[in-house]
Amino acid sequence: MHQTEISNGHEDNSVLIVNDEPDQLTLMGTLLHKAGYSVLTAEDGLEGLTLARRERPDLVISDVTMPRMNGLEFCREIRADSELKTVPILLVTALQKDTESAVAGLQAGADDYLEFPFDSARLVAKVSRLLERSRLEASYRDLVEQASDMIFTQDLAGRLTSINLAGQKFLGRKPEEIIGNSFFGVFGIIPETNGFAGSFGRPQEVSEFRHQFVARSATGEDHWLDLIISPIKDKLEETIGFRGLARDITERKRFEEALRDSEERYRLLFESTPQPIWVYNEDTLAFLAVNEAATRIYGYTRDEFLSMTINDIRPQEDIPTLMIKNDLVISSPWRHRTRTGKTIYVEMSSHPVVFDGKNSKLVIVNDVTERKLLDEKQQRLHTSLQQSAMEWRQTFNAIDFPVLIVDLAGTIKRSNLAAEQIAGIEAEQILGKLIGQLGENQPWKKSAELIEDMRANQAPVSEEVKDETTGKTWAITLYLINEFGSAGERAILIAQDITKRVELEASLRQSEMMSLLGSLVAGVAHEVRNPLFGISSILDAFETRFSDRTEYLRYTNVLRDEIGRLTILMEELLEYGKPFRGELYLVSLEEMIARSVRACMPASNVAQVSLVSNVEDSLPKIRIDRRRLSKVFVNLIENAIQHSPPQGTVVIEAQKISDANNDWVQCAIRDSGKGILDEDLPKIFEPFFSKRRGGTGLGLAIAQRIMQEHGGKLIAGNNPEGGACMIARFPIPAEGDS
After folding, report:
1. Which of 69, 299, 613, 615 is 20 to 30 A removed from 349 (C-alpha atoms)?
2. Is 28 helix (H, G, I), strand (E, B) or coil?
3. What superfamily in CATH does domain 274-367 come from?
4. Tens digits of residue pLDDT in 280-306
5. Where are the domains of the chain?
6. What are the pLDDT digits (tens) for 18-38?
7. What residues does 725 pair with on adjacent strands?
8. Concatenated DSSP letters for 518-529?
9. Which residues of 24-54 are buried (b: 16+ CB within 10 A; e: fewer)?
């Protein structure tokens, strides 16, 4: 039987207790469990071995004397198992009873023993010490196994007893093919021909041995190995084996050989190179050697150079450019002075060397005087170009309408700030996009179409387009530009917002037309009003004279209705032609709407249509002509009543809104009728346009003219749920206006 308990203190430390005495088993298990260890138990060696192979504990505590398999046999089996051989074993012995067995157990592979009875603290201490030592040994084994150097051990007879993974990989053999063979045999070494000292074979004379030799790897390549052999001592300081470390120094050997070859060729290279080269003393700064190129470029003879220091070739105001402490430094262009006093610009690389036993620097010089002068000229040109580019960019971004440079596929190559703001895309994101990807609205949609036309015709194109969503009108122009000497590869796209200009032109045309029309209709109404008054008076006299003749009533009623209709027409014509006097006062919109609703209540009662008013509280006052604006609201409400079915509803809403960066007070009158046909919307405010039987077609035209006189807007449309919607917008006066 066995039990496993995991504590919060030592989850990774499991201890297997093997003991045929239940009391001892319980006692040790309880003590270790309280100390925070995970405890496994078995009642004899055979059961313990089975449990150990299955659970692989971190430490084993075993009694010496047990049935079926005693502690000594148990230790030997544990040490013979490849997966358990490193697990520490603590033997428990009865005091003065089987001490000799405990010693035999240590020889069988146990790591320590504990006499029974024992102190609980001593048990926990031994367990802790053995586990810590086990962890350290495991770390050491892992370090050895993962080392890049070959590490091995051998006995006194020269047979290898262990070797790490690096050694196995180098030899290309498995551990069982290596262990037990001699070091010389495994590495293919003949001691007499490889320079090994003879004392390496006499362990009593060996303290430490180091030697470099050539060995062949598993791939068939020869490698230089640096071997260090040190003896392994026991407690009596007697040599019981050897520990070896072999490092692959092949690359270092190759470098040393290359260096020797380089040194042999140094003098030839030093003298024949076309660049100035010199060596100077780091301490005195005196020249120690110079090549022929140095004497030619600087103008000094070799003897003159060797009598100078490096300070003699540089202007005194310059920093000490050659006093370099790094192994390799590439300097910026520095100024040097020749024998004739001429200033030259040079770049230098410096390398530390030992010359004639002195710490020195080898300096290689590159004369860059011509390049330096050219660089300065190019720098001045570059600065000028940068300034021009900055000024161009500032000018480009100062344009308050979109300007873009595109290729003929519509890909954006450059854009100004106005284009990025209108598209709502940052500068780094807009580049590389197609014009059509900036949105379905204008001016982008039409721009994409114009680019296709330009690509087909290779000619400038321009067009005006109105964005029905925003109400803006855009003038779009595309010009072909030349780039790098070739024509037609790119184009400049200019999109100007001409909404205000178009509106101003339309307003001017309409004002002129309305002024002429107003004068005309006012004159006609004035001329017709007098005859109409005479006809009405004659009809009154006729009705009085023939009041008893009932057969005339059907004629007089028709005449009376027609006179009434003509009278209303004349009044509307006179109102349409009346000039605007500009007498405006601050008035509450809530009050205007309330008065207009009260004026329309009789008409709504007759038509059986409900009037509902939804007006926000505390709306700003608006500057209006009270009498003329009252006609607008009454006209719009009565028109909505006439187009709503019985039991229908007309809703009057008023609120403050923001549109096109301006604040407005908006009043919307919504009816529950059939709505306005799409083909009628463009003509809805034209004079004399009416779809209602008996209508004059002047009501909405008069309302729009009055709204324009107040600087407002009258917008016709339909509700999403059905029915027409007329929206009157008034600008909010600036603060301080009275």
Report:
1. 299
2. helix
3. PAS domain (3.30.450.20)
4. 999 999 999 999 989 998 999 999 999
5. 10-144, 147-253, 274-367, 399-497, 510-577, 585-731
6. 988 888 888 888 888 888 888
7. 670, 717
8. HHHHHHHHHHHH
9. bbebbbebbbebebbbbbbbbbbbbbebbee
